[in-house]
Structures are given as C-alpha cells and as structure tokens.
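>> received
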Amino acid sequence: MKTLYLIRHGKSSWDDPALADFARPLTGRGRRAARLMGEHMARSKWIPDLVLCSSAVRARQTLEFALRAWSSPKPEVRFQRSLYMADADKLLQQARQLDDSVNSAMLVGHDPGIRDLALLLAGKAEDIYLERLARKFPTGALAVFTFPFRR
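>> returned
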C-alpha cells in the first residue's frame, strides 16, 4: 500500500496588487491553518517519506508551518517550479515517477490541479463527498489517499 497526501496551500494575501502571483505570501489565517494541519497530521502519524512542493511562496510557507509540528526525522523535501499551477495530469505524472522505495508522498500545490487530482483519485467515493470536493477544495485542505500504487 502507498499513501498520497494532497495539500492545497493556505489562504494567501492579495494586499499588494503589484506583487506577482508566484510571490504572494500566506495570511495569518493561512499560517494558522497550515500549523493546525501539520499538528493533525502529526497526531494521525501521517508523515510522508517525501514532499514535492510548488516553489511558490504560499506553498513553501504552507509546508514550513506544517513541518514545525512534525517530529524528527523530517521528510525529504523537493521544491519544484513545475508544480506551480500544475494540472491534475502533471501532478499525477509526478506521483507516478516516484521511486518504488517511497511509501508515502505529499504534493503541496494549487487549485484547480490539486482539487482535480483529488477528484480523479477519489473515483467512486460517496456522492456527497464528491459533490463537496467538486464545489471547492479549500485553501489549507488536506486529502489522503491510500491505495496500491501502480505506475
């Protein structure tokens, strides 16, 4: 069994209209949500072997605040520009290319790619959950999938 964690970055700031989208930081609410998510993951023992994270500021900060709650050893982290605004196909391709020795991985990214990948992986989940997910995958949200990981 393999586990894949999908995280949408926390709430980001629009305070500076001149700031490039890639450089937008988290708001206070986004930082709190990331910290709480990290604490929940630690309590649940959901610590991945590997993290692939968009290199956008808000994604990096989301991971930074989540990591603070995790005890050692910390997972290997790879920041990838290609994950910035990647679609579901690109994200799935990244997951499929992971080494077989990786038993759990986490993707930290953006909407709509993370949401669309969650919908794709959810497959035939209960309709109410699929409907909620299709409507919105909120900032700071986490989806966890455990399945036989086939390339």
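>> The mean pLDDT is 92.
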